[in-house]
Amino acid sequence: MTVEAFSDLRTAAYVLDAGKIRDNIEALCRADGDRTLSGRYLRKYYLTDKGRFIWIDRLGTDGRSDTLLAYVSRVGEMGFASSVFGDSAIAADLRRIRSLDFDNAENCINKVASRLEYRLTKAFLKYSSGQRFGFVNPQYLLNRLDVLEDSPSTTPAYRRLFDVPIERPDNSFFSDALRRVSADSVGSFLAEVQPRDTLYYKFQRELKASGDKAYRKKIICNMERCRWREKDRQDGNGKRVVVNIPAYHLYSFDGDSVLDMKVGCGTRKTKTPLLTSEIERMEVNPVWNIPVSIIRNEVSLHAGDPDYFERNRYYIVHRESGEHISPEDVTPEMLKSGKYRVAQEGGAGNSLGRIVFRFANNFSVFLHDTSSRAFFGRNNRGVSHGCVRVERPFDLAQFLLGDPDEWLLDRLRISMDIPPQTLRGRKYVANEDNNRKLVNSLQVKPHVPLSITYYTIYPDPLTGRLAGYPDVYGYDDVIYDDVKPFLE
């Protein structure tokens, strides 16, 4: 018995033509205006690479399609609309191909098969890349908000506000995703790409329980932040420091213990950048080298006024020669030129306070003490030019040092004008001939990971309950606008 023996049963309406399917898919590609990374790879695969069919074969399609639709059907749990992923159209075409419900027009077998192949791939890549890397690219979105001063209007330059090294989808991810479809591993792959952050699932439960529109918007934005995965970092022996800007709080985690304190961050005009780094060292009674922007906008207004410079303990240095310049001999134009450095002497009254915590970053920002502490009593603590002012600097220093001997801690206290707690320290202070600045610099070993982040809903470190905070920089609005096409 041969196949030809059944040739009289052959029906044209049920014959799959690979060439026609290919032509239909390419037409769908050309008509699709999707400019996302997944959309661009989709067109590259079918148009440029002439990739083989993934979901359909001579038998139609199989259970892999149902697995994908099962995941897509649950996107309502994250506030998204399943229609964005074309679930209804895919389900309708699956029903047609499985019941052989074709006609001779738009729903002929080859058009149904081509739509299924294209739409399943599109939904699969869009969903998997979004859940694995985020549906919003913060590196693009947040770094195109604040135009730099004196930036040309034709080609504006922007202030960099997001400098967290996060993973992003690339061709290798999409290629591997399609390979997993061909290997019949759709279910395991889609399980792997789900967010890892446990906070994401806490937000998901909160979203299910809330009917408040404004609060749901806030939850959706914070769920999106949980999808952004940072690249591998040093573990700091289990220690880490997190600054959450909307909460204006710093949290130092070490196992189950948490040190929580208030902080002051940048104003809306001079935002504190979002970044990750490692705290490497501490400087006690630091000299403050005033940023050029502050010199131009504030200090230069007092050029020629020695009382102002003496009152603030500022001094002026010519950058090239290192020569100290009298305040009486400088003009506003000289200070604005960038050729002169203005610094504030260390010690009492210094704007950095008595200690600064240094970490590598691209913005010359750091954590530090402050000589102006009244703002810690306010709710809105957006007060700085970008640095983070900490409420309890000695406690943070002690946390970073780990388990130092008491004499080291007392030397640090004495250097910061804090009463010593050991007999040796009290005797040292009682001797007026002793130098009160016992400590200049301390290394943090191992370096402790630091995250300056932005969550408008965040767990209370003691109770674990979610608490909401104002969107002080307006980032929720920006993220929500970008994710809005996915919403219900």
Can you describe what's shown?
The protein is of the alpha+beta class and 488 residues long. The protein is 36% helix and 17% strand. It is built from 17 helices and 16 strands. The strands form 3 sheets. An 8-stranded mixed barrel has the order 2-3-4-13-11-10-5-14. Strand 3 and strand 4 form a beta hairpin. Helix 4 packs antiparallel against helix 5 (109-133), helix 5 crosses helix 7 (171-182) and helix 9 runs antiparallel to helix 10 (213-227). The radius of gyration is 30 Å and the shape is elongated. The relative contact order is 0.12. The mean pLDDT is 93.
What are the defining features of this structure?
elongated; eight-stranded mixed beta barrel; 488 residues; 16 strands; alpha+beta
What is the number of helical segments per DSSP (H or I, 4+ residues)?
17
The secondary structure category is alpha+beta
- Estimate percent helicity: 25-40%
Radius of gyration: 30 Å
The coarse silhouette is elongated
Oligomer: single chain
Strand content: 15-25%
What is the average per-residue confidence, as pLDDT, rounded to a whole number? 93
Counted beta strands? 16
Q: Ranges with pLDDT <50 over ≥5 residues?
A: none
Q: For the largest sheet, list the strands in their spatial order.
A: 2-3-4-13-11-10-5-14
**How does the major sheet shape up?**
8 strands, mixed, barrel
Cα distance spanning the termini: 56 Å
